[in-house]
Amino acid sequence: MKLFELGERTAQVHDVLVTLAELAERDDARAVLLESADDPALLKPYLNRLDLVVLRFPGFRDGRGFTQARELREYLRFSGEIRAEGHILPDQAAFLRRCGVDSVVLPKDGNGDPALWEKQLRQFPVAYQRSVLPERSVGPGLRVEEVS
Amino acid sequence: MSIPVGHYQYDPIDRDFLQARIAEFEGQVQRRLDGTLSEDEFKPLRLMNGLYLQLHAYMLRVAIPYGILDSRQLRKLGEIARRYDRDYGHFTTRQNIQFNWIRLEDTPAILRELAEVDMHAIQTSGNCIRNVTADEYAGAAADELVDPRVHAEILRQWSTLHPEFTFLPRKFKIAISGSPNDRVAARFHDIGILARPGADGAPVFRIFVGGGLGRTPIIGEELFDSVREEHLLATLEAILRVYNARGRRDNIYKARIKILVQAIGVEAYREAVEAELAQMDLERYRLTPEAVAAIRSRFAVPQLEAPADADAVLAQQRRDDPLFDRWVRSNTHVHRDPGHIIATVSLKPAGGIPGDATSAQIARLADLADAYSFGEIRITHLQNVVLGHVRKDRLRDLWLGLSEVGLAEANIGLIGDIVACPGLDYCALANARSIPIAQKLGARFADTALQAEIGALRINISGCINACGHHHAGHIGLLGVDKRGEEFFQLTVGGRAENGAAIGTILGAALPEDETVDAIARLVDCYLGRRESGETFLDTLTRLGHEPFREAAYETV
Amino acid sequence: MKRPVRLEPGQKLVLTANRLLDGRTVWWCADGTWNLHIGCAALLDADEAEALLSRASEQAQRDGVVGVYDTAVQAVVPPEPVTVREKIRAHGPTVHPEFAVETEQ
Ligand code: HEM
Ligand code: SF4
Fold first, then answer.
1. CATH fold of B12-116, please?
2. Quick check: A17 and A54 in contact, CB under 8 A?
3. Domain range spanning residue C31?
């Protein structure tokens, strides 16, 4: 498993990764795997002990993970690591990052080339809407760029 | 070049963004060619940039945000048609233009040419927020309360490469209008927005959700009556967040927001949206008056000056020339300025292909727009072209100029103003051809005097249940079906997209292609024979019910 | 995915796809190439078509085509597709006779 970091945060390795259903039983678990149908609000009681939430994308066209990530950051104020795994494309790198995802498990095929992910993160100089990242306006209107 | 009238003027930041999008797409094409991206992966990515694979070639759908172009942009579209396509383009009911003979290889070069005039194909397809449409008379119509274009532009920007909403369960279409007379079919959109002035001068928005056509036609329901401007983006984010999380992904025919709204009910949807809003940091999503003002300042306002006798000159010309008078009657609309008038150019010549324009016609329209309407052109959701601000005393000169290139058809809103999707002549999903039947109907009712006599009557034709030709919303609708390899058409009557939106009722079993035109002629005869004075087709239909029309359609001679 | 093939007397199958680079409709010929003209298409029996179809699909990337499938034709010269859709793919849009594939240079 090769990890790619979308931002500053260093990706962590966890031996114990449990499902949402297992979380209540496993006091030792610091990492949880969310399926795309899972409601992140159910993590509320466990947020303090969680270091890592892994969002599984069953296919890259299933965009529920983007909303899950934003809910974790915006509503639940989760400050640990969020990771995406499954069928994801480098073309989604900036979207993932802007929704609050810190790292990805690189796909095993040609889409796992870290250079493609790197390039995509730097593809666009501005964005036209706010994200979960710290941002400042660029020129008048809606445009923002990330504060580095 | 001076700021264009009618649409947002790009600055270098916006232009850099477009270049980045083109570079991204070029990389995606490269990865497709070298096999890194499979066709299944590439398809959604190319669709998000407006590139379809149809029956004979790729089709590129170019965005015309809120349907407005300047003459420079229109000329560029004509050049692209000439250089990269087969010398014509097709204007769509979503106010975009499609080119039917595009090569994948050429696409990055075409996108670069489009970017020279601040145009693109971003989000004209795919399961994302599509090109936002707006009232084709925006900023010109006498009946308008709020000019919707500034907010349409805000929505265009906000939805562009939205990080959270680019992989939705299904496509998502938003329309906005600021007139009490709905000209955008607001209630047939995923989100329909009607703007009106608020107490403090800023507009407030009435928001409908869950409308749509396709195989399950549904009229949108009101979600909120009065959303304040500052909360417009937050509200839309919340609506989309609920849809992205809960919309069905197991069946593409049940994936639109309309199905979710029907499944849980509009009250539950509203509660879910309110629950999102309660958790959101509203300050972060606030649409500030400064941001609105900044975007508004990029729109030029036309300086409407007309001689005092403009109206009188036009009146005299109409008296002198009955042909011109007939065109004025069907093809113009009242402007907010008494010295000006809104002119609609019909792209529905009798026997022609609805919505198609040759590159020569496109170039000529650009010239006429420069000469008569501040260089501004609008594409309508009925596949026509509007010149929004024509001085009344110069209208006849415009009409003469249009006549020279076969664009002076006097049939707007009449039976010849047929809406048709590309159908089986181009479309990979079609069951039947839409264009030939439109051509036959156009030829059958070619006489403009007859059309005027018949009065307001809209025919809409779709080649399959996806309903791109809005057949459900046609006063008479035709839906192409495939019966063991033969083309048949199902007839509906009584649909409408305007105020009082309604879905057409199916008259009966589908008819073979070669009987359909006669059946429609009998429907029209039935109406002409039984109408009372002043009645439109819809009025007579409402008074008499469907039965006489059903009998007329199926009567065999 | 695979629908049962029911061929009427006098019918055969041909393989068709679109070219990746320009999207144009192409037909599979006996020499293994893809051609714009249906006149070149190899006429296949149902069982032969099945094997060739899966081979052509596997090779699609290398051959620069997408969406390979089979369709029934009347076995005349040139072969005439059975469905309206495939007729239009073979000959071009009916509303633009000047674009007919067979008369193109
Ligand atoms: C030729 C290529 C085209 C393809 C492959 C295509 C495909 C589709 C599909 C699959 C749907 C149904 C989506 C759904 O209900 O979930 C649809 C709906 C629609 N399309 Fe197209 N379309 C094409 C061309 C056009 C054109 C030329 C127009 C405009 C004239 C258009 C406008 C629309 C509209 C307005 C709808 C209805 C939206 C709704 O259901 O609310 N499309 N199209
Ligand atoms: S209605 Fe059907 S046939 Fe017509 S363009 Fe849409 S998908 Fe194609």
1. Sulfite Reductase Hemoprotein; domain 2 (3.90.480)
2. yes
3. 11-99
Q: For the domain bounded by B419-553, which CATH number is listed? A: 3.30.413.10
Q: Where are the domains of chain B?
A: 12-116, 133-296, 310-404, 419-553
| Residue C6, in any domain of the structure | no
What does the pLDDT average to over B189-194?
Answer: 96
Structure tokens at B498: 């305007």
Nearest-angstrom CA–CA distance, A53 and A33: 6
Taking only residues 138 to 177 of chain B, the set having a beta carbon closer than 8 angstroms to any beta carbon of chain A reads: 154, 157-168
Residue closest via CA to ligand 1's atom 7 equals: B466
pLDDT at C103: 66
Q: Which atom of ligand 2 is nearest to the CA of B423?
A: 3
Q: Which residue in A64, A116, A123 is closest to B244 by CB distance?
A: A64
Angstrom CA distances, B305 to B302, B357, B393, stand at 9, 31, 11
For A49, the domain range is: 3-146
Q: Which residues on adjacent β-strands are paired with residue B506?
A: B492
Let me know if residue C3 belongs to a domain: no
Interface confidence, given as ipTM, is 0.97
Q: Is B170 in the pocket of ligand 1 (CB under 6 A)?
A: yes
pLDDT at C74 > cutoff 70: yes
Which CATH entry fits the domain spanning B310-404: 3.90.480.20, 3.40.50.720, 3.20.20.100, 3.30.450.40?
3.90.480.20
For residues B247 and B245, what is the distance between their CA atoms, to the nearest angstrom? 6
The number of domains in chain A is 1
B466 lines ligand 1 (CB under 6 A): yes
Candidate from A64, A74, A127 with C-beta closest to B280: A74
Nearest to B221 by CA among B254, B186, B247, B196: B186
Q: How many Å lie between the centroid of ligand 1 and the Cα of residue B217?
A: 13
**B489 touches C: beta carbon within 8 Å:** no
Cα A65 to averaged position of ligand 1 atoms, centre (Å): 27
Residues from chain B contacting residue A74 (CB–CB below 8 Å): 279-281
* Distances from the Cα of B510 to the Cα of A37, B494, B552, angstroms: 41, 17, 14
Q: What is the pLDDT of residues A53-103, one digit of tens each?
A: 999 999 999 999 999 999 999 999 999 999 999 999 999 999 999 999 999
CA distance B247 to B112: 36
Distance B472 CA to ligand 2 centre (A): 13
CB distance B438 to ligand 2 below 6 Å:
no
pLDDT score of C1? 39
- Summarised one tens digit per residue, pLDDT across range B294-314 is 999 999 989 999 999 999 999
